[in-house]
Specification:
alpha+beta, Cathepsin B, Chain A, 2 domains, 7-stranded antiparallel sheet, globular
Length: 281
Amino acid sequence: MAYYNGDSLLRALQDIGKQNHTSIYMDAYPAWYMGRDGGTFYRRQRADRRVGQNGREGKPNNQRQHKRHGKHQHLWKDREGTMNVKIDLCPARDKFYSQLNNEIDPYISCQVTSMVAGLAVGKLGLDPILRIVGYKQPEDKLKFYMETDHAVQDYWRKYFNTDIPAPQLAGVMVFAVNSLYGKKITYYDQRIGMCEIINDLGKGLPVYTSMKYPDNKNFSGKPSPIDGHIVLIVGADGDNLLVNDPYKNHLTGDRDGFKNVYTPADFAKHNKGYAIRYNRA
């Protein structure tokens, strides 16, 4: 198995394309592809559907691409059909954040906890959050800011259902963090796929995403379905994803949420599809 970190992953993928002289696809929503001449990589923005002049939805972009280029080759797969990359953005526990030690609402603070963890793991800095007064931990500082800042509160009331607390809404989270940092350091992705996840991880950026656990049981062993819970994807190992869960391991019930291993089937079953992605603005 080959091991890559950061930009070396992209360079390795470029080399694969040059050797094969073919168009390479990562999945149904490719983020990068290469021309048949094996030349430069081109950025291809993901689009589920293209809207025509009459406003109706057109044929999905990826269907046209697949027909044009014929049989596609998965970029990160080896000849046995398994991933040949290993990425670990959180090798030690110093950047693993648990929500259970938060001062404010520890049982419903997975959002701010995973956001702070993502900023730390992605090496984007926590200084703007740490300057907020009133609490010791950055997770509590961010939650306090989102619930008291006038601009954030106005944005929440204007555009969202106020029955849902501001920190629990991804759109408000993006607005709050970007406002706090003074630049577009995060953005919302309504439908993230494996290609985007691997692409971000390869750039040293984790992925904040929403999960569901309908079969969850609480620590007492009683059924406790979870419709929404935020985790942070911090790596890939073979076909599997490495996930930091701020509450617990929701796959096994173990109390340790550090680098839980999700198989493709696990992720497909539990992921809700949307994410907040980080940006080195």
